Amino acid sequence: MASAHEQFRDLAWKCGLAATHQRQIIYEAVTATPGHHSVEAVFAEVRGRTPSISLATVYKNLRLFVEHGLLREVSPHSSMLLVEGNLEPHHHLICTRCKAVQDLDAADFVNFKKLARRAPRGFDLSRPLVEVFGLCRRCSAKT
Amino acid sequence: MASAHEQFRDLAWKCGLAATHQRQIIYEAVTATPGHHSVEAVFAEVRGRTPSISLATVYKNLRLFVEHGLLREVSPHSSMLLVEGNLEPHHHLICTRCKAVQDLDAADFVNFKKLARRAPRGFDLSRPLVEVFGLCRRCSAKT
DNA sequence: TCTTGGATTATAATAATTCTCGTTTAAGAA
DNA sequence: TTCTTAAACGAGAATTATTATAATCCAAGA
Asked: Which among A115, A134, A137 is the nearest to B132, CB-wise?
């Protein structure tokens, strides 16, 4: 069984990335525990092991790992405030790359009964908003 | 038939908000055209009618309108970068208020065939990510 | 070992958003 | 209508998250 260290070196090699010590511990900080990790949290954890590490390094490598598919980004949407006046129940289709948003008026692709069963008790889904992420044609063409 | 002006005064009154000129034109800038509006776009439009208006006023009132349900926010998620190491296909349940994220491991509430039919041609849904927004128990209790 | 291009660091810069506070205004009361 | 007052506005400063820059540093192949 390969060590975590060796596993990462292997992954990095497959992506053509140098397997530096910093990347190693950033990757491990995210994958060691399940759930969702903020940059601050990763930075705090990583600094415990390598106090000289820079926040910019954490940012850069998290983005790099996401680009190469080693990590996933939670909610890969535009970081700016967007509003809409359409209050009719409808949903959104968002391009992960260019962040363009399109409306999906028919919600028949979501089974809200099943969804409600999956949600934890007390979670209010009375006015649900569903957003689906993918790559728009233009961005998937570029690759 | 009430004018747009009167309609807004009525809406504002129902929410207990003062119907100021600035609010009027901000609201109209968003609702006059369908689709998704950035703060910059709203500001630019609104400044054409009332050059003295402040960007802070636009921000403040857009947030206010969203809080009161007069407008919807597109992607009401945490504005900070979050990553996860779990690469297994799974989805997210996000609290609109506190931005907490939970995993939804079973995707059986989404009919991907129907979804693909709804999406525009060429939109790449080969690795779909679905995020569902609502209010977690704690936040819906506070109201 | 040596070389070299990519990686890291500290710091500066940027961009989006929010806060502060003095001024103005909406809207109910007189 | 005028008065009163809490709320709203405007200008610019402040804050926060993130990215760019430029000088070292190091991983990895020759």
From this structure: A115
Q: Is the CB of A80 under 7 A from strand C?
A: yes
**Range(s) of the domain holding residue B137:** 91-142
Query: Which chain A positions have a beta carbon within 8 Å of B127's beta carbon?
Result: 134
For the segment B128-135, the average pLDDT, to the nearest whole number, is: 96
Mean pLDDT of chain A, nearest integer: 94
Furthest-apart CA atoms within chain A: distance in Å: 55
Give the number of domains in chain B: 2
- Max CA distance (Å), chain B: 55
Q: Express each pLDDT in A85-132 by its tens digit.
A: 999 999 999 999 999 999 998 779 999 999 999 999 999 999 999 999
Let me know whether B53 and B101 are in one domain: no
Would A131 be classed as within a structural domain?
yes
Out of B110, B121, B140, the one facing A109 most closely (by C-beta) is: B110
The pLDDT score that the predictor gives to residue A134 is 96
CATH number at residue B123: 3.30.1490.190
CB-CB under 8 Å, A112 with B39? no
Across the strands, what pairs with B102?
B93
Query: In the predicted model, is pLDDT for residue A1 greater than 60?
Result: no
| Residues of B in Cβ contact (< 8 Å) with A141 | 122
pLDDT in tens, A46-62: 999 999 999 999 999 99
Same domain? For A18 and A50 the reply is yes
CA of A57: nucleotide with nearest C1': C8
Element containing residue A15 per DSSP (H, E): helix A4-15
Smallest CA-to-CA distance from B30 within B72, B77, B79, B75 is with: B72
Residues B106 and B138 in one domain: yes
